[in-house]
Write a structure and sequence with these properties.
Blueprint: E1 14-15, H1 16-23, H2 27-36, E2 42-43, E3 49-51, H3 53-67, H4 72-98
Helix pairs in contact: 1-2, 3-4
Length: 116
């Protein structure tokens, strides 16, 4: 086995049973996410669902949102917006790095002198 695959968060390393145990949920919960298209695991050659660490993260976050009382539709929208925000922040960090630190990043927004 190529152990580097385990470092890949998108490598489908977990069976439904393993995924359910890691998340502290029942297997039917994971199957229902798959049936709804919210988390789509890959399939083994025998047709069994195989989940990646990335998919487990999504399923876990959806579970948290359900526990807060959100519907599947609202939970999926929240997750999509959270992902979009994270991607935007990462792109902003990359752009700042390309500028070579000419703009200073400040967690509360621009500083009084107008720099970053």
């Amino acid at each position: 086995m190529n152990l580097r695959k385990l470092d890949d968060e998108h490598y489908p390393a977990f069976s439904t049973g393993q995924a359910a145990e890691l998340l502290g949920v029942e297997q039917p919960f994971l199957r229902s996410l798959d049936n709804a298209g919210a988390v789509t695991p890959e399939r083994s050659s025998g047709g069994h669902r195989r989940y990646s660490r990335h998919q487990l993260g999504r399923a876990g976050r959806l579970r948290e949102l359900f526990d807060e009382g959100h519907t599947l539709a609202s939970a999926q929208r929240i997750l999509a917006l959270e992902t979009e925000l994270a991607d935007t922040r990462a792109e902003l960090d990359r752009l700042r790095a390309r500028l070579g630190g000419r703009e200073r990043s400040h967690p509360d927004g621009p500083t009084e002198d107008g720099t970053g």
